[in-house]
């Protein structure tokens, strides 16, 4: 039987980490996190990273293992997981679990991602300075001249994405749309993908409760300790971004907490949209996910 990667995805706060823990325990296998923020040591509370108790129950990979000063992108994630999987399969009887809500990271592993050229720091700083001096419309105009195809479907209101696309166009000398082939790569293992779901009102209640729990657990001092690093891409994240605005006097604390809840709900909607667009996912209610996953694995063998 081929090695099998069980993907357990879903929107934030749906309970996929708990499902993944129970699946991994039942199968005596390991978990690889596909969360683009839980990988960072400094962002433990605001990312709802697995607790020490959870980490002791099941071996985890790519959790709290690097600094925000050493960022991980989707291509790096793909390469690291491909290095991890052979050992995880061997130790887990040919099975491993990939769990998380960073859908670009999940897709990078399952479908593959095209390597992008390195961007010199001096170019990045030059473009940032140009953005500050001349504004986003000017940068969008530059990008439209270099890659009109990309601009037709990109989020041109997101300055980080506009700048990154400009960086890649300039460094490669090609439109960024031509750097992305979109062709799936073959993998030497079977992939079975599950999407964990809950009714929308229940999910939103869980999101609100999770944010309140994060605040009670020390999210505010955690974010305060990272203000000096708030310019880093890893910290342009819901939960931290709103508190940074509060610390700088832009928001009152209750307003910042309310925005964290609202923005987390918006993020959950995007995750659901992404999952619904992928027909390979088997959708499962959170309350019955564990037996359904184990049954699906036994019938797939």
Chain-wise SSE layout:
Elements (H helix, E strand, L loop, with lengths): L3 E6 L6 H12 L2 E4 L18 H6 L2 E2 L12 H18 L3 E5 L3 H9 L9 H14 L1 H11 L1 H4 L7 H14 L3 H4 L10 E8 L2 H18 L1 H6 L16 H7 L5 H24 L4 E5 L3 H12 L1
Helix pairs in contact: 1-14, 3-4, 5-6, 5-8, 6-8, 10-13, 12-13
Structural account:
The protein is of the alpha/beta class and 301 residues long. The protein is built from 14 helices and six strands. The chain has helices at residues 16-27, 52-57, 74-91, 103-111, 121-134, 136-146, 148-151, 159-172, 176-179, 200-217, 219-224, 241-247, 253-276, 289-300; strands spanning 4-9, 30-33, 60-61, 95-99, 190-197, 281-285.
Name of the CATH class of the largest domain: Alpha Beta
Helices and strands, in order, run as: EHEHEHEHHHHHHEHHHHEH
User: Spans with pLDDT under 50 lasting ≥5 residues?
Assistant: none
State the major sheet: 6 strands, parallel
Structural class estimated from helices and strands: alpha/beta
**Count of β-strands:** 6
Helix content: 40-55%
CATH topology label of the largest domain: Rossmann fold
Rg from alpha-carbon coordinates: 20 Å
In short:
This protein is of the alpha/beta class. Helices cover 53% and strands 10% of the residues.
